[in-house]
Fold this protein.
Amino acid sequence: MKVTISLIKADIGGWVGHSTVHPKQIELAKQKLSEAKETGLLLDFFVFHVGDDLQLLMTHKYGESNPEIHKLAWDTFVEVTNKVSKVLKLYGAGQDLLSEAFSGNVRGMGPGVAEMEIEERPSEPFIVFAADKTEPGAWNYPLYKIFADPFNTAGLVIDPSMHDGFKFEVMDVIEHKVVVLNAPEEIYDLLALIGTPGRYVIRRIWRKKDDLIAAAASVTRLNLIAGKYVGKDDPVLIIRAQHGLPAVGEILEAFAFPHLVAGWMRGSHNGPLMPVPMKYAKCTRFDGPPRVIALGFQLHDGILEGPNDLFDDPAYDLSRQTAQMIAEYMRRHGPFMPHRLGMEEMEYTTLPHVLKKLEDRFKMAEE
Ligand code: F6R
Ligand code: MG
Ligand code: MG
């Protein structure tokens, strides 16, 4: 049976500030999606949040970029904005709904999307990752570890189905181009690109031996769409697991190291990506630190058996503690790089204004 997994998310107002969502937003979104399930449009759904981002996980039969499914998500975000965010004057009500009217597909309109159409396997475990206060390039490091690094994923060496490796689709989000690179043969080229996560973002991964889709990530960058700073686009990711794909534990393993990602306060700082359970998916210190949740599901005929809140485990305590030590270390740099992001990333903030203001006061330096 063919099933499409669509994960569509947006920040449509925070409670309080940009820290988390309001329970009434979740409630109304659930109601909208359960109506869509009753009509048969959806097979199943799960509404959740990470930080101030409302996440609509949906399963259906209609393929990727389906206008009806995207419209459902869009209408849900609009209704929750109007009936909850605006009424409660939540912070930044409707902030990610950049366009006035829906145009057939939410891609490029503000909300983030990760989607994959799959042939449901006899057993179909998959994991949904959602992060707040960071950007899509934040997945580059863990995706590389999971699908290309045998020091992370033992199966790349041990399992004959994975031994040929994986194909990575990398998107240049500035020039809006994509390139497909093969691992392990082209890992140096791959790393040369994805080591710049603000520009080159892994969008999809397939198993090489049979082109089975293994991972799909959101790649929207709101600031690039809007042309002015409207925040980082907190990313989502879907990864299929087991039976010739990385095991659940190999996928989670990549998140044990809280690597530095761009985002955090004002989308302008580097900080550690901290793996947390759903109950801690709330941003606090310096509007962060950036955090990620992992929800596991077993799919059966399109029904989502889950979630299994996978970072809700003492095995991740050390990663969380390490993340806090890194957070403390980075914070001590205050407005200095490399805590604050570099010039290119500051393009949509005040930096150009400061340079403009000082334009006439800059004199040629004497030899
Ligand atoms: C980062 C983020 C927050 C805000 C910060 C200032 O993605 O959403 O860190 O940038 O709280 O927000 P404003 O300018 O809305 O007061
Ligand atoms: Mg917000
Ligand atoms: Mg957010």
Remarks:
- The pocket of magnesium ion (ligand 2) is lined by residues 11, 14, 18, 52, 92, 95 (CB under 6 Å).
- The mean pLDDT is 94.
- The chain is about 25% helix and 25% strand.
